[in-house]
Amino acid sequence: MSQKAVVLSGMRSTGPLHLGNYFGAVKNWVGLQDRYECFYFVADWHALTTDYADVSQIADNTLEVVADYVAAGLDPERSVIFVQSMVPEHAELHLLLSMITPLGLLERVPTYKEQIREIRNKDLSTYGFLGYPLLQTADILLYRAHLVPVGEDQASHLELSREVARKFNRFYTEVFPEPKALFTPTPKVPGLDGRKMSKSYGNAIHLADTDEEIRAKASRMFTDPTRVRRKDPGHPDACNLYDFHKLVSPPDVQEKVARECRLAQIGCVDDKKLLAELLIEYLTPIRERREALIGDRDSLLDMVAEGSRRAQDRARETLDAVRSSMGFDYRKLAAEVSG
Ligand code: TRP
Description:
Elements: E1 6-12, H1 19-32, E2 37-43, H2 44-51, H3 58-71, E3 80-83, H4 89-98, H5 103-107, H6 110-118, H7 127-130, H8 132-141, E4 147-149, H9 155-171, E5 180-182, H10 211-220, H11 240-248, H12 251-262, H13 268-295, H14 297-326, H15 330-338
Parallel strand pairs: 1-2, 2-3, 4-5
Helix pairs in contact: 3-13, 4-8, 4-14, 8-9, 10-13, 11-13
């Protein structure tokens, strides 16, 4: 048995990662790799819950996310990096857990109610969509994870997984630890327009963006709305640009920009140009690693297959325990007879 606590997290494969995903999640995951036994995966079946009508992008997106993970510093040697659908045990555990999960628990999950209300262009009244957080529960319990690094928006899903783990342990035998959410302090990552950075708002900077795309996006960023003329003093703390400086610029640059902005010595246009170059400097090594990974698709597929095999070994151990706990031991009994 390993001594280290198990960490598990994942993202849906709905598109390439942006800076909100990076600073809000993946960068934190990188830092957990030495202290914990880490499992990081791409939730391609979860992408189906909303994208079932057009599946053409899911596979490519999945590989892009894997490349983003590794380029951002997840290490396939130290962490198990895998794809959900390549470990079909997720589906078996999901099915078994569905038998003990009251519908009311799923119907009350706030993200469910919210998305049903907000997303009008897709029919989300499916069995799979209601079961989204239970599939997530299976993802977590399958590795008997102790800690799940996620954003605050996932709190209710973690609550469900704890509830289901308790229920299983009570009905049958104690198989699952109760997973805890690990809410790492996440910095503010605004989008270009000042709203939260999000794929669906079209306001994101991606890890894959070229230098020219970054320059063009930086030039479109919203700045301090109270600074109307060049000679007006600015307010770095009320400015999106400055939020980005806090993420990517060296401390002396941050300090200089803030001072010169308050004194109206630097204008917003020049600051955008400066920020673009600092973003490029920060992102270039990540983008280069990512391009190398995407460019060698065979090796990337190999890496994912190997990670998924390692994940599957662990998943099978858990499912053996689950089957025994529930009395579905036929395979084991048959092996004893023939052995
Ligand atoms: N629901 C998560 C999100 O939207 C993605 C996810 C799926 C996940 N399965 C998980 C996160 C298991 C943590 C653990 O970001």
